[in-house]
Write a structure and sequence with these properties.
By secondary structure, the chain is mainly alpha-helical. Helix content is about 85%, strand content about 0%. The chain contains 2 helices and no strands.
């Protein structure tokens, strides 16, 4: 479920997406 949000957050915080 966070995968969808991770794509948009990748633009703001790509490192946060990798941590999750």
């Amino acid at each position: 479920m966070q995968f969808a949000h991770g794509k948009q957050e990748l633009r703001s915080a790509p490192q946060r997406n990798k941590l999750e």
